[in-house]
Amino acid sequence: MYASREDIGYDFGDDSKVGSKPIKPNPNIDGGWAWMIVFSSFLVHILIMGSQMALGILNMEWLEEFNQSRGLTAWVSSLSMGITLIVGPFIGLFISMCGCRMTAIIGGILNALGWILSAYASNVHYLFLTFGVTAGIGSGMVYLPAVVMVGQYFQKRRALAQGLSTTGTGFGAFLMTALLKYLCTEFGWRNAMFIQGAISLNLCVCGALMRPLSPKDISEKSAVRSDSEENQEKALSHSTETIKSNGVLSEEPEKKQEATNEEVLESVQHTETGGNSRSRRNMHGLRILKTVSQLTLTVRKGFALWYSSYFGAASLFTNRVFVAFIIWALFAYSSFVIPFIHLPEIVKQYNLSSQDNIFPLTSIIAIVHIFGKVILGIISDLPCISTWNVFLMANFTLVTCILTLPLMQTYVGLAVVCALIGFSSGYFSLMPVVTEDLVGTKNLANAYGIIICANGISALFGPPFAGWIYDITQKYDFSFYIAGLLYMVGIIFLLIQPCIQKKQPRQKSTEEAQV
Predict the structure, then answer these.
(1) Highest taxon of the source (predicted)?
(2) Which domains does the chain have, with CATH numbers?
(3) Exposure of 472 by Cβ count < 10 A (0-12 exposed, 13-18 middle, 19+ buried)?
(4) Is 67 helix (H, G, I), strand (E, B) or coil?
(5) What burial letters (b/e) apply to 445-465, b meaning 16+ CB within 10 Å?
(6) What does pLDDT average to over the chain?
């Protein structure tokens, strides 16, 4: 069921769970290198999510260049945003096998390649493959590790840390909008995408900063869990045993194989001291064999963990509130993405371009979005405040703004609604926290991968749907109304589930009380 942040908190004094000697927590948890992880995640959000929020600039360039319908052209942006998130569950598999650092570095290279290849696009369909698919997959391979690493390095101030790191989306939307406008004006959209591809290579540097915690540190961080989380962990263990019996993971033969390799290697090493050159060649071959064997072990264990999270006895889908969370995510994200993609066109229709050029509405959303994430994160970390309630209130505010936006036809009215959209959408910083509270730290990568996959489906179909509605009605009003109503359906799914328990002060263990 649901585990509050205090239930998954530090309690190293509980000797019954962590041993007779007190364990000192890693200084990098909630401090030290943890803040470098926040900085790395902040830059990732600037370069990936910020760039995607500024795609409205390129969308107008593509409309003029290729002379295609708004619905078809909007698929380029939607594919990029959608695939970034849809690949989440599969990126969770990569993380289980390769770790966050390697996954992010490979993703940075792939993302930059997608931007650079898109500079040579001859039609919209070419952009579907290069920008939508290639850059989208690369973005997903960097984005999920950036979120997961912050969750691993923080325990007491998770909401604030996630809030600070995800403010990169707001900063990025503001900076990238201005940058892409300048680059498109001075060099044209093709050269702008080439330059942006070069800038995106900095994602590899961000990935290199994601220094993994040792297994000991991770076990210490989750030493004390709520009873529900312990039960889930036992079920996960049972699921893994079931998988072993079915042949997905067989640990004993692997251990025997590794031990055999070690024995043979030691034997060859002993023979090598006699100066036999043939033994040296055998030694080299056995080292390669050992490396391949260890790599195979890592891949199989990573796949077993990923498989058990989705299909085992401890499947994440057995959590009813988490399932409702997925349904909400299917409808929510498009309501945030649609304004970013189509606001420039709406401003042009209302003849507000001169005012929007002075201070773009998308920039207003981006700037206020920064403050929204930090403020909502600080509020959620207060001991007397429920993160779940803050999350729901922000959602209600956002859906109200989406339904109200078409009624505003003046720059001031649009600016006010956009500011509220920016602030209320700050709940994005709470999504990893709520997800971790629901499923625990161990399953965060796979669970959050599912959530952002649902967000990706929403982002994939939202903007093209809005463009398609415009092509039929010549208005964007109905697009916002339908998106808002679907968003409300998602919120209702969250409300009809059993209420999540409010945060309560963590009870001291019996042994602590005796001391």
Answers:
(1) Eukaryota
(2) 27-215 (1.20.1250.20), 309-503 (1.20.1250.20)
(3) exposed
(4) coil
(5) bbbbbbbbbbbbbbbbbbbbb
(6) 74
